[in-house]
Amino acid sequence: MDMRDGLKQAKRVVVKVGTSTIARENGASNLARMEEIVREIAGLKDEGREMVLVTSGAIAAGMNRMGLKSRPKSVPARQALAAVGQGILMHLYETMFASYGQTAGQVLLTKENSLRHNQYTNSRNALLSLLEMGVIPVVNENDAVSVDELKIGDNDTLSATVASLVDADALIILSDVEGLYTSNPQEHPDAKLISEVHGITPEIEALAGGAGTAGGTGGMVTKLSAAKIAMSAGVTMVIARGDRIGVMREVLSGVPVGTVFHAKAAHLRARKAWLAFGRHIGGNLTVDDGCVEAMRGGASLLAAGITAVDGNFAAKSTVRVLGTDGREIARGVVNYGADEIRRIAGKKTKEINAMIPGATHDEVIHRDDLVMMV
To answer: What is the pTM of this model?
Structure first.
């Protein structure tokens, strides 16, 4: 079955709208576009789909209410504007959804909610309970209290994390661009839209540009990061233009719009999803080709296959595992800190005890704590 056709069967759908989609250049809410998005989501829910909305725009709404023309640089100022704007934004969504007979429920998340497994599980249960009640969750990062080290960072990543949390079938990211192009279409008029992506390779990553529009924090780089999360969690992701009326219905009808990122076959179990996407990434381990093949066959990551260590992390941190070409192969929780792994990298398991007195683990990452990303 074609992946586009598979979208027709998607029952649980997460939709992400960015600041550039729902706010005008002066910061004012684009009420007409917001209403179109709400009407479409409500209609899809009436047809039997479960819908989750991840929205940006709180800081922009706060800036507009306070008469500011540029986004402040200080964290406290942005937090204050988010506190002002979040209520405005949610009031608009509540009113609009109610006019179509739907109930919306606000969910504010921070990175801290995913760093601890019990909070990750609680967030998942809360979202699933809202869906079971027939409520449309409206999710945003809690910018009013988040500090940089506890920020998820951007709502592209947030939407993919939410899609993983709720075991979504599809994630639709509404953007100010049609999708992923062969080059920057603003600089190269002959750039071609890439209709389908089967894996995030270094070549695909090289196509991503820099940051997004002035009002938002996202760009194609963050969208590809979101795609990694979604695809590995078994969620089909689509990037499409946010100003295209009816685009969500087109995507879920199999119409070839935007760029579709093909999901891996199976959903990750909740704990492995948390290991891969909920925890802070402490660093990178580069491994040889033989190690990659062994991990794909279900093996743990052993010291013998490690060729390089990047970062300064402690034991029990989550790290990325990279192949020789720099492509992310896996994520997992290490049994040793960075300095210890540097000492034992490339060594056989029987040599570990001599190099690390009191070592209790044969594996650098046990297979139960390892999540394959490709």
So the answer is: 0.75
